[in-house]
Amino acid sequence: MNKTIRRASVFTLLLVFALLVRATWVQFYEGQALADDKNNRRNAIETYAEPLGNIIVAGRSVTGSAPTEGGDLAYKRTYENGKLYAAVTGYASQAYAPTQLEGIYQDVLNGTDPRLKTVMDTVTGTRAEPGNVVTTIDPDVQKAGFEALGETKGAAVAIDPGTGEILAVVATPSYDPTSLTDANTAGEAWERLTDDPDKPLTNRALRQPLPPGSTFKLVVAAAALEDGLYGSVDEKTDSPDPYTLPGTVTDLTNENPNAPCENATIRTALQYSCNNVFAKMAVDLGQDKLRAMAEEFGFNNETQDVPVRAYTSVYPKDMNESSTALTGIGQFDVTATPLQMAMVSAALANGGELVSPHMVSQLTDSGGDVLEDHTDPDSKRILSSTTAEQLQSAMRTVVEDGTGSNAQIPGATVGGKTGTAQHGENNSKTPYAWFTSYAESDSSDREVAVAVIIEQSDAARSEVSGNGLAAPVAKAMMEAALKG
User: What is the helix (H) or strand (E) element at residue 178, kind and residue range?
Assistant: First the structure.
């Protein structure tokens, strides 16, 4: 064999060896990554080869599957009352990655979760029967919130204070997940939804923290009572009206100039939503103590899973005293989701114990056997029962004879706190309207905590208030929860 042929043979062998090495690398090291790639069509074909498992609300499926007409995707997802439950279910799409419960539990719902496999499935190599996701959502509370919000841009969350069960997660404007399920038509719907300036795909209840305004005064009051700054909600505070922000010549005034806010008690200050009292209280406590109490309620928690990952509600760090004063009225860089403010009311209603909020009670296989059980969640005492009871009483005063009168419910004990928060530079846009509350039935052991935000409505700017816009929504949801 001459030298040229020998060299060509060696080079060819090296190429073959390199090809074998590359093939082995792809098969054994990159194979799973390629299999899991979202652009791998085989994944969609496998996922939609059979009907999916379902998301259950009060024993009834709010999802389903329907056969497609032609193509290699045999089934597509369907939704019952899709707009009503979109903030709970999310969507499972042939074209886009699933979201919310559809995304978190996609392995259970499509049958690929290893816990679903039977011995026969393992022997035959077939996909297991899909499982189901059982939620804690109460359809009556969900519907009440959805209908009460109507055409406004807003959100609401309802929680059972004693169990941590999330009874409703509502965000408006909503969307119908069915529009995104079919790969042939999903693109047009996706473009329409993502171009909508109202952002209907955003889960405002869990994933859009905004300034909580005066609802945050409950956290400030809790910190003051726990710290011993004041002995009770009926002790006079040292609070000039107006209050000059430290280091400035800016006077912080109150919405109602005739309210008895000078040196008001915590009860009166909550009743009339006195800014001067809580701004000074925040400065007297100091940002560190106030932040510590906020974090007990759940602020600054970057891993708040319910099981959907909720965006972090924030109490800021490294402020001067003037900024600390503004945090006392829920402004500056304080932000909160409706979930977070519902947690505040829930902890107070539950005697100072915060039960971890959750909207899934169980994961089951196709036969109903439980894979995961979440009916015994973690709980934590975050403030004394004495402080909680005092703030419950003060919140009742807000509803009975204060700024939250629109939340009154015959046959129930209701406590709440209104709030309005600045929106836009120099408050140039319509303020946010908030209401957070709790209610207990006078004839049963039913109870509920609710938080509502109205981001935008048709109301004139002068008519925007927590009592006028948000409290009626909370009332409707609380009535539905107490009726069971």
Answer: none
- 422 is written with which tokens? 């600045």
Q: For residues 439 and 426, what is the distance between their CA atoms, to the nearest angstrom? A: 35
CA distance 452 to 148: 11
Q: pTM for the full model?
A: 0.90
Q: Tell me which residue of 161, 136, 124 sits closest to 355, measured CA to CA.
A: 161
* Residue tagged 């300034």 (tokens): 211
Residues in the chain: 484
441 in active site: no
Question: Of 452, 347, 354, whose CA–CA distance to 391 is shortest?
Answer: 347
| Residue keyed to tokens 């209280």 | 281
CA nearest neighbour of 385 among 360, 349, 417, 418: 349
User: In the 8-state DSSP scheme, what is residue 113?
Assistant: -
Q: How confident is the model at residue 47 (pLDDT cuts 50, 70, 90)?
A: confident
β strands within 374-421, DSSP E: 379-381, 412-421
Q: What is d(CA 437, CA 166) in angstroms, rounded to the nearest whole number?
A: 15
The arrangement of secondary structure in 207-366+374-483, i.e. its CATH architecture, is: 3-Layer(aba) Sandwich (3.40)
Q: Name the catalytic one among 93, 214, 323, 441.
A: 214
Supply φ then ψ for residue 391, to 5 degrees.
Answer: -75, -35
